[in-house]
Here is the input.
Amino acid sequence: MYSHESEPQEQTQMQPTPMTQTDAAVFGRLIKPDHSDFSPTAAREILSLQFDDDDKARMHQLSLKAQEGTLTPDEQAEIESYRRAGYMLGVLWSKARLSLSRAGLGAANGHHT
Here is the structure.
């Protein structure tokens, strides 16, 4: 038998990092918003991504309920989902604007305002 087979399991597990491992943090590291490596076509397409009117209306409704303190647990989970999606979209938009800017095209040529 190999000696590493008898080692305690906790020695072979990865140790937790001090950084919080939230969805947003992981996504931010994955996308690397400070790298401008989207093509102009991809950047413009990403800048055109937006929540539709039904989602915007639902977010507004949930926001009002949150201000009143009347969100149900399901609604709290829903508003958190919108918040995470909005953050991730913002990270993508940031990288897309940077990609256009570094290509000499500027974000004004994208669809997002």
